[in-house]
Amino acid sequence: MNFTMKFQHMTAFISSFSALIILALIAGLAYGYWNILTLQRQVAELRDGAASTTQDINTLAEGVSDLQQKTRSLADSISVVGQFVADVKQNVEGVSSQVNDFGQTINTLDKLSKTDKELLQKYSKVYFLNENYVPDQLTAIPQSYVYSNSKPQQFHARAWPHLKDLIDDGKTANQELYVASAYRSFTEQSALKSGYSVTYGAGANKFSADQGYSEHQLGTAADLITTGQNGELDGFEKTSVYAWLQDNAYKYGFIPSYPPGNSYYVFEPWHWRYVGVKLATYLHTQNKSFYDLDQREIDTYLINIFD
Global pTM? Predict the structure, then answer.
């Protein structure tokens, strides 16, 4: 083959190879362009997605802000309602307290209305009980508690349990106690005083009350006696029974009405009056006498006399 033919073959090969190269370049450029378009589309989609996400985030943020505002408003409303409830509760408690106080006042007044106001009055030449006065509740003292069989004795029914406990506990402590005299009516006191006046004249006023001034008419006073005295009251202050009464009678609501040095009668160690545990305890611990207190102070204990 001559040179010319070889050159032609080579030129054809080069042309074919160049065409292949050009086609390859064109294909590469087309592929690259397609990739660029794909990337641009993806970028656009991402931008659109980002914009949508941003909008969603903004919408969500606005929702959160609105929810926060509503929450704050609800919290404020709850606070207002809570304060209202607290105010209502306080008002209800105040009304309830007033109702309770009113109820207690009613109960106190009812209790006082059913309690004989004479029971804590001062007699013994101070206050007067008329001839028609009789305790609203009297009970017979069992004979085993009375020193003598000659005359039945009576005592205020509501005070008797206290006197009974006093006598029973005294016997438990080996102190024999009996009732020598308890309730006496206006008429009985009048007859007793008349007899003393005949015997002792004006001297009877030192140890015996006129009718209407005797604590015995209340039914809450008793003359106590013990064995070994032959039925006599004189000398009672020298007995162990009297010493025991001095230390213990107040626990049962009893006081000595006429202690040594009183301004009304001679010392009567046998005469004990029921005034209620609260008042008797106060007088005992303060070392005071019943008749030394102001009547208004004494009256404050009437509500508790039988407690």
Answer: 0.67
